[in-house]
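User: My instructor asked us to take a sequence, write out its structure as tokens, and then describe one feature of it. I'm not sure where to start. Here is the sequence I was given:
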Amino acid sequence: MKRLIKYSFIFLTTVVFSQNTTVAYKVKEVCHDIGINGILDKKYYKDHTLFLKNNKDYSTEGEFNLTVNSKFPLPYSFICGQKDGSFKVSALFTVSRENLNFEIDSIGNFIQPMPLKNENSVLIKDQYKFNANFSKLLNVFFNNEDGDLKLDNLLIKYSKENPNSFMLFWTLVNQFQYKGPRKSYFESFQNLSSKIRNSEYGKMFYQDMINSIKLTEKSKFPNLEFQNKKIRSSLGKKYTLVDFWFSYCKPCLEDIPKYHKLYSMYKDKGLEIISISTDRTEDMEKWYKVVAEKELNWQQYLDENGIKSKFYNINSFPTTFLLDSEGIIIKKNISPEELEKFLEQNDYF
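Assistant: Let's start with the prediction itself. The structure tokens for your sequence are:
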């Protein structure tokens, strides 16, 4: 579910004290509340600050004290919350142990770091150069039907010319988490320097990409085991929909009535549905309650805390897979409407 984002001018200054980084901010437009947020999966922020929020109403300036225990720059965004629940958000920027001053363009929303003392900083140069190019990438991505292909080509080209770009690396990670595996992400990553590829974060990203290949179309869905039962033993005679969800996921819950309709129509014709919940340990009672109240009468599995789901880079919900009778993935992220159309066109009547 996508949310409209508003933009403003925001000025950020970082001042470093040992392993703590103070990010001071001055916001041109008033914020109801302000936060600084790690934009990626929390595993990338182990021993580092993931999220901080200033709940002081209508704050226009202040600071956040981040714990950054790595010389490897980490990606963050700055969030300016509005009273109506919407928010303004900065583009990706990196925080490390350097003094930086960031300015956000209110139109393109691209961060332009302004050096304070260290004008020759490699990090500052990286951000300047990347933002100048990334604005073009975003314009291509959003304004053209073939934006994916053009974006792929530009990412590969930029990676060849800028193998030491931390900004490019984190953009690849971000794009991968949003869109899943693409050949261009592998190629761009391989073009990066060994310093980035062999870093703790580079190895994590590479492993995520390798794991995700196992869940691409035409590959065989892994025989995951939950509560001592393997899911391939529950496959339908013709097709199986595997649905990753959790009990507080609003779009997941909105799909349930649609699945009820399809399951009642096609379960006797070879369709099976397997729901895999990623609920946290403390939310298990909520999961049990939803399953009972919503009368989910198809296969239900619990991937407690989403451990196995995260291994396969399933981080957004709902995530669905349509499988054939042999467990081969026909389509990923198929909507209930697309599934209904598929079933109608594949000799179910």
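For the description part of your assignment, you could build on this observation: DSSP finds ten helices and 17 strands in the chain. Try explaining in your own words what that tells you about the chain.
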